[in-house]
Amino acid sequence: ARPVIIDCDPGQDDAIMLLLSMASPDELDILGITTVAGNVPLALTSRNARILCDLAGKQGMGVYAGCSRPLVRPLVTAEEVHGKTGIDGIEITEPATPLQSRHAVDFIVETLSAAEDNAITLLPIGPLTNIAAALIKAPAIAGKIREIVLMGGAMREGGNTTPSAEFNIYVDPHAADVVFRCGRPIVVMGLDVTHQVLTTQARSKRIQDLGNPVAQAAHNMLAFFDRHDVQKYGSDGAPLHDPCTTAYLLKPELFKTKACNLQVEIHSELTMGHTAVDFWHVTDRPKNVEWVYGVDSDGFFDLLTERLGRY
Ligand code: BDR
Ligand code: CA
């Protein structure tokens, strides 16, 4: 199984990503789950990650709390999408999975430092603060990274937080800038692809019909998550952003990607956090990412449903 570290800010779509990942031990060896401030403040994302470990029956998983605010800018959260708890839709109780005392950035630095070159895959699905802080603290860890598969950014779709910017990149554009310059292979799941992965009622019902408690919890979270987009945009259901990262590792053939240059806007207040993707190769800037622009969304939901059926 491929060793991975998941860096998250749950968030219902983060929650589904965690459940999908923890249901896939043949492919993924989860070394630890690190949390960051994003959808809700750090104390809540850290508690939520532990609730998800409880739900998946993985109380032994190492969960490490990281940075409580972005590198430069003040924290922006998204309770209007995710609810006050971050994972509205399920019952919140004090988790049995403990919070580790080590800081997430130290966990990332120490785990990567002890690894072989090219060994570890990072799966960031929130603002990139922890990953950037680790790269700043210990630049030599870059060589230990096999690949970064992250959720963030937007090109054709435009932004979901400002007209120009997607939430994860908008919240910490300076961190994103550090990560996109790290020189390692990066696969980017932006809104161009995640907006193709909609949790329609039929898809959510298939998950509920699996009949196990984890699938029921997933369905309940999705029902809450959906209502925001259905009410605001009149869409069929909410985009399941974060699980696209794990799905890519499990079944890359579901996705269409193109090697591109990507740079993050960190100067203009108007377009702060915009991801400038050179999709048509109109510059000779180095190709630093695989930009994902297409997905077989039925195939994605077949995979997710099959994995949730394992609980
Ligand atoms: C991203 O922002 C968060 O609200 C979601 O969890 C996802 O990671 C989508 O823009
Ligand atoms: Ca997220």
UniProtKB/TrEMBL annotation:
One of its GO terms (biological process) is purine nucleoside catabolic process. InterPro entries: Inosine/uridine_hydrolase_dom (IPR001910), IUNH (IPR023186), Ribo_hydro-like (IPR036452). Pfam families: IU_nuc_hydro. The keyword rRNA-binding does not apply. The lineage of its organism: Bacteria, Pseudomonadati, Pseudomonadota, Alphaproteobacteria, Rhodospirillales. GO terms for cellular component: cytosol. One of its GO terms (molecular function) is purine nucleosidase activity. It comes from the Bacteria. This is Nucleoside hydrolase. Residues 4-302 form the Inosine/uridine-preferring nucleoside hydrolase domain. Keywords: Glycosidase, Hydrolase. The keyword Hydrolase applies. It comes from Denitrobaculum tricleocarpae.
